[in-house]
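[Discussion] Sanity-checking designs against the backbone

I'm trying to build intuition for which residues belong where. Below is a C-alpha cell string of 280 positions. I'd appreciate it if someone posts a full sequence so I can compare it with mine line by line.
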C-alpha cells in the first residue's frame, strides 16, 4: 500500500476511532488485567456475558498437575464482543505501550533496546507480511517477554473485505506469529481501528480478544519527537493503552520519543506492563 494512501485512510478513520473510544470509555465488561507482578488478578467487571464468564473459577486451578510440568493453560475462544477493549484494569498506575505495523528492522531493534534498558514489557501488533521477513525480531520479542498481537497480514481496511478475506488476513498472520514467536496470539487489533461484526466474530473464533487503544500518539503524522512525548505524557493515566508505530514509514521520531517518555513515566510511578487475558 502506498504511504500517502495509508495516511489518507488513517485520517478518514480518526473520527470513527474517536467515537469507538467514547463508547469504550463509558464502561463495559473488562476481563483483562495488567498486573505488574505478572500473575493474573481478578478484575472488577460489570454486566454482560463476559462478566459472568470472568467470575467463574479459573480453569487452570481445576486442572490436575501432572508430573513436574507446569500447569498448562490453553486459551479458549473468547466471547464475541461488540466493541474492542480500550483500557486495562490493574493495580496502581498501570499503563500499556503498544507498537503497530512492524516489525521493521530499521526501528524495532531500537525500540526493543530501549524497553530492555528499562526492563519494560510492551505489546507489538505485527503484520504478517512484515513478520515473515523478520522472524528474528519476533523471537527477540519472545525472549524479552513482550506480547505479540495480530494486526492482519497486509494491513487492509477489513470493513471492505469479504469474510473469507478477513479470515485469511488474520489466520495467516497468527500462523507466522506462532512459527516465529512460539505461541499463537491471543490479542488482535484491526488496522485503522476499523472494526465490524465480522472482525469481532472471526477474531474470537481464532482465539483472540480485540484490543484498541486509549491514547493515540499520532506518531505516524511525524509531528516531531517532542510532540509525541507530550501526547504520551499528557495522556498518561491508570489503565491507558498507548498507540505508537514501529513501521509503516519513518519512525525515527517514535524511537526517540520512547527514549524520552519511558524513563519519565517510570519516574512518575507508572508500571508499564502487558495485559494477561482472563481465560474462563
Ligand atoms: Zn496499523
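Best answer:
Here's mine. Compare freely.
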Amino acid at each position: 500500500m502506498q504511504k500517502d494512501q495509508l495516511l489518507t485512510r488513517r485520517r478518514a478513520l480518526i473520527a470513527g476511532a474517536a467515537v469507538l473510544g467514547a463508547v469504550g470509555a463509558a464502561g463495559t465488561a473488562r476481563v483483562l488485567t495488567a498486573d505488574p507482578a505478572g500473575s493474573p488478578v481478578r478484575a472488577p467487571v460489570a454486566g454482560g456475558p463476559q462478566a459472568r464468564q470472568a467470575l467463574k473459577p479459573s480453569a487452570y486451578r481445576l486442572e490436575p498437575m501432572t508430573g513436574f510440568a507446569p500447569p498448562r493453560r490453553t486459551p479458549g475462544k473468547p466471547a464475541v464482543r461488540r466493541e474492542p477493549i480500550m483500557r486495562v484494569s490493574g493495580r496502581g498506575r498501570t499503563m500499556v505501550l503498544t507498537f503497530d505495523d512492524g516489525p521493521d528492522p530499521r526501528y524495532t531493534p531500537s525500540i526493543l533496546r530501549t524497553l530492555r534498558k528499562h526492563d519494560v514489557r510492551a505489546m507489538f501488533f505485527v503484520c504478517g507480511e512484515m513478520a515473515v521477513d523478520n522472524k528474528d525480531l519476533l523471537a527477540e520479542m519472545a525472549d524479552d517477554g513482550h506480547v505479540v498481537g495480530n494486526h492482519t497480514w497486509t494491513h487492509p481496511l477489513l470493513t471492505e473485505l469479504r469474510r473469507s478475506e478477513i479470515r485469511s488476513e488474520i489466520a495467516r498472520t497468527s500462523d507466522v506469529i506462532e512459527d516465529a514467536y512460539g505461541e499463537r496470539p491471543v490479542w488482535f487489533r484491526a488496522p485503522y481501528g476499523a472494526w465490524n461484526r465480522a472482525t469481532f466474530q472471526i477474531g474470537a473464533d481464532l482465539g483472540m480478544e480485540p484490543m484498541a487503544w486509549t491514547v493515540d500518539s499520532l506518531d505516524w503524522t511525524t509531528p516531531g519527537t517532542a510532540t509525541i512525548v507530550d501526547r504520551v505524557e499528557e495522556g498518561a493515566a491508570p489503565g491507558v493503552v498507548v498507540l505508537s508505530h514501529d513501521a509503516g514509514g519513518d519512525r525515527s521520531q517514535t524511537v526517540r520519543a520512547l527514549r524520552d517518555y519511558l524513563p519519565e513515566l517510570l519516574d512518575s510511578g507508572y508500571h508499564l506492563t502487558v495485559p494477561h487475558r482472563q481465560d474462563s
